[in-house]
Records
---
Amino acid sequence: MTMSANASQETAEHSGLLKFYSAMFYACSSFLITMVNKTVLTSFRFPSFMFLGIGQMIVTVVVLYAAKISKTVQFQDFDRSVFLKIFPLPLLYVGNHITGLASTKKLSLPMFTVLRKFTILMTMILEVYVLKKTFPKRLVYSVVTIVFGAIVAASSDLAFDVEGYTFILLNDALTAASGVYTKKKLGTEGLGKYGVLYYNSLIIVIPTLLASAFTGDLHEAVTFEDWVESTFILCFLMSCIMGFVLMYSIVLCSYYNSALTTTVVGAIKNIAVAYIGIFVGGDYLFSWTNFLGLSICMSGGLVYSYLTFNQKSPGSNAKGAQELKIHITQDSTGKYTAN
């Protein structure tokens, strides 16, 4: 009897492709939604980042419910056990949404992407304490380089905004916690990646809508004067749709990779966003110190990404797979031997 190594190799290659494609999907989605959100909140001066987040949640619920009804996707029906299974993801989800949109509005694109680098360090720390993971020193050193570059860039921010910096650091912490707990919850029976997405949005959308109405945020959004502009409506709808796409891509990337890998992919995306933001958007105040910090930060991100994506996973080595080949023979006495 022979156990073929080819099947093992094929599985390893298949999972490797899924990891890569899911990571690229997340990178593209994250890049596009950052640009769209920046257009809605800054270029059009839309006053309500909370209302925009509500729109993204509603689209997520509608799309996934329609997919469930049409049996395109499957996840458990709603019951009381859902709350216990998914907690605390809904709280982290809405906090991540709101602080992310608020910081996008308050900060220039380059500074937004620089300060988002602290998410990598926070994710690494949470994976150590929550998921009990360990990391090689070279990865830790690359993270230190990223954080150092972020500090250098932020130290020369001529458009320093206390509220914006507070929102972005809160967003970093919530993103890290959301990524780690999403990875933890994806294995929960009955939920899966679609159930996590659906119930996250469903549970939190009504409380968020009430909070928006109570604070006057909803009134500002409804009375916004550019609702008659077709260009604004198109951008708003694109942001809502991309909100769903982004959340799906995050869950998909976390499903096939780790929370830390998902964060690394975000750092790769930020390289393009930061440098494009220098020339696009009109709210970046150039300084050499800031530009140097950006470059250090991005260089560390590239090294970190390279080290992370070039780690060999168990079973991916062809020689290791060949060791699975076992011959079982029967001798003249009737006994079985393996060689």
---
Amino acid sequence: MNFLDGSLIPEYQDKLVITAAPYGPEWIPSDFPEDIPVTMEEQIQKAVDCYNAGASVLHLHVRELDGRGSKRLSMFNELIAGVRKAVPDMVIQVGGSISFAPETDGASAKWLKDDTRHMLAELDPKPDQVTVTVNTVQMNIVEQMEMADLAGTSIAEPQTYQAYREMIVPSGPGFIEEHIKRLSAAGIQSAFQFYNINSYETVERLIRRGVYKGPLVMNWVAIGGGMDAPNIYNLANFLRAIPDGSMLTVESSMRNVLPINMMGIAMGLHVRCGIEDNLWNQSRTAKMTTVEQIEQLVRISREFGREIANGKEAREILKIGVFYDTIDETLAANGFSPNRKPAKPGLADLAA
């Protein structure tokens, strides 16, 4: 991604797309009862509140009435339908983990089997996006957290802490290719979750081979624990690799969320916030609801002079519903150089 003269001036940047992650499947309701919706009506209203605050993308997980993260696709269908009716312009992004929260105290935090995850392509009504993890990797979400971040929460309990410390994201080549194909066939955009340069390069190769023919929409997930650490060097290294036609959202955890988002706002990137990522204000004197986090980013972005994208504008920026016919078209639309062509013999070769 190139930063030409004027790149930091807001009129040369897209409006800011804010992704809200308000469902926080890793927490239980007692961790933040003021902001963890449990009933279906509450979960739909949470989406409405986030949209009204300025978020145009909803990162969606679902809870059962007992407060645990749901793994029932029927519940996902119900919530998607409710959000579609309540805020039809909001971009719905289903979390591809299908809720990685442990089902019982001390149980492992893990993804479901590949066949179950593939069923996300069959959701009805269909979401706009499904997040796609790329390459199997350690996802130790607590590595970059401080114990004070977790004090008084369920994750501070030794068994639960250990479960999240040992969590693995399973995403091998066979799963990735099949999952992308199914999502694309259903008209659902793959929202790639990139943890480092390696996972990005894997998707570039898939594009160059024609496995994925759509817009390159992605998150840089800087949470440590097997993924990039949240610092400017890792972000700059990642930005140097990605093409100009791509759309990048920055994502981090706990009190790293706000500074990483401020960098993203300044550089014309896009941002994510919510209790799935962070519970606290920057002084850790109080918890912040997802809506409060969105409102904070809206204020900061407008101080930068950068306006906020509404749902329709976000759909255009993200190119929701857009797919390409050929490899060459996909490469060109995303700002990649074309694939290499077979070498042609030169005059010297012909003469010989």
---
Amino acid sequence: MPVFRRRKGSRPRLLPELDDAALGRVRRRVLTCWDRGSLDTPVMALMAEVLDEAGEDWDRKAHRLRVLAAAAGRSLPGIWRQHNPHYQAALLLEAWSDVLQAGQAGASIDLDATRETCRRAAELLPADPTPWTVHLATLRLERSPSAELAAIWREIKARDPWNREAHLQALGYLSPDECGSSSQVLDLLDTVRAAMPPTAPAAGLELTALVRNHQRSMGPGGVTALGAGEFWRRHDAVAALDHAAHHWPGPGYLGHAQALADLNLLAYALIKAARPSEAAHTLRATGGLATPWPWNAEGDPLERFSHHYARARENE
């Protein structure tokens, strides 16, 4: 399974699949189906193959489901489920599609029905944490504290203690922008920091929280934004950046499905922290593969990434 592609001369590009070439081939076929408004048998077989191939790499399975759900739109996942009502991945694709569609303005999605789909998917493959992760995502959409959270979190941790998608969903849910508070985010980070292996798929959780806090502080403008530079001189920020900058860009250090997304995150944070040589080293390690976030906070994400990537390549 590829981790990083470092191809000299490669142009910056945005690929939802990152360096997962097999996923990219299927995504493009699914997009063709979406254009036609139909789902043919060969494409259904390709989706099943790429999802089954992930096996018990739950992190990669979640990545592949999210990418395919975004490519498939609203109707195709439902068609696939109708053809395969007892196939767990088909149910999960429909549930992910519901979550993505529900996040769009004006959408009307029955999230109770989505949670029922998640419960059915959990019954079909009890070892998989993904149905519980999607269930958590539905709670985020409702923007209100839920008594279900603790039980769902226990189910996830029992199956895959360091699942990247689940930890990011929990971080969003507990944030002051959604259903929680700054103190709840700190509690989560303290718990994770004490136990998480350094190369776990959720290794970028603390840095994600830091970048979100930075962007939140920049949002209002004025005095708050002027003081944002001091943010990256805090002890927790310096410690997180020191560790990540030293280890993450190394070949083979990060091996999870969205490692390139974490490198994008690190490069962005290093630029904001005025650490240009480390940022350039990290950008080169991406091989030119960009992600929408966090670059989209300041305009077109590919344009912003390309600007910094070109400068990094000049100094090779």
---
Amino acid sequence: MTTQTTSAPPAAPVPGKARRAEAPYTARGTRPGFLWALPATLFFALFAIVPLIMVAVLSFMSWNGLGSPRFVGTDNWQRILDDPVMIKSIWLTLLLTALGVALQTPLSIVLGVWAAGHQRNRAVLSAIYFVPLLLSSTAVSVLWRALLDPNFGIPARMTWLFGDGNLFGEQASAIGVLAFVSTWQFTPFHTLIYQGAARAVPQVLYQAAAIDGAGRYRQFFHITLPQLRTSVITSMILMIVGGLTTFETVLILTQGGPGTDTTISAYYMYQKAFKGFDFGAGSAIALCLVLAATVVSLIVVRVSGYDRMRSSTEGVS
């Protein structure tokens, strides 16, 4: 005779207790604690926040690098705001930044989407194309300065295209060279951003579009581009901040010339501080660049709605 044992039904979960049990896992499992961010926070504070505060204080001082700084109030700010070279440098900085965004954005999107595919020899061509990304701005500027030398470079051999060959002798051609060199160097970086974003687009969207009869171009404009929206905004912010703080390219290629026709704000800050030994005015210009980059970035984020976007894959609400 066999005895049949019946197990008691499991107790119904208590809702409050379940929530209390899951809360620590949700809080600790998805986001690390503050201690994980402490080293990066200290590093940022030591090498970014503290120097920025020192520059802000120095912008109200008169100091030539020797002796003790002397407080002069807003004299440095009044001088740079009344300086025609400073006003001109602001417009040149905005122009170069706008050219960088206009040239690099479409190139980066097209190349990034292409590099995300499975074309033949794609990996080899991508590796060759990304070589400029491995070089420093100084090395790139020295390279193109030699290649575009009016006496021994490419323009001297192709006078039928470049005229007298002196691309640095006129403002328009000099600005064109600066925009071209920046595009050649930094487009691969933004291409990497779009390459990663394009690979994250769900393939089911393309499959559904193909079933509906959408071709390659319609898929690009109606699926790929909308899915790259957040990457476009991120890339544009990086381009704007980088354009406002460009320095090495101008220093090596044009040195602000001809005259002051390519003297952007960052280079003018260098001239004031390290050539004219007017560190107060140089600090004021530097602080203006920081404020301008911050304001423009916030405007882009606000207008684009980037601050209201939420992730749909990481569970962050």
